[in-house]
Amino acid sequence: MGLSPRDRDILDFERTWWRQPGSKQRAIRERVGISGTRYYQLLNELLDEPDALVYDPLTVKRVRRLREHRRRVRIEGRRAK
Asked: I need a surface site. Which of 5, 10, 62, 72 has the fewest CB within 10 A?
């Protein structure tokens, strides 16, 4: 099926957002044009898409690791580090 232009924009933004001045929430709204909540919903869905992994493997793997760490902390508490 492939990635949509919005999907690619989300992955591109996630790869470089830390270079933007100001808050990430504001940068999401300005660059991607959606709310922060919707952005994270879409990003989370993208992480499980094989096409996303092909498009930007470093970003997808990095964010997957963060997602899994946060999930472990929620389940196991702080000792999950």
From this structure: 5
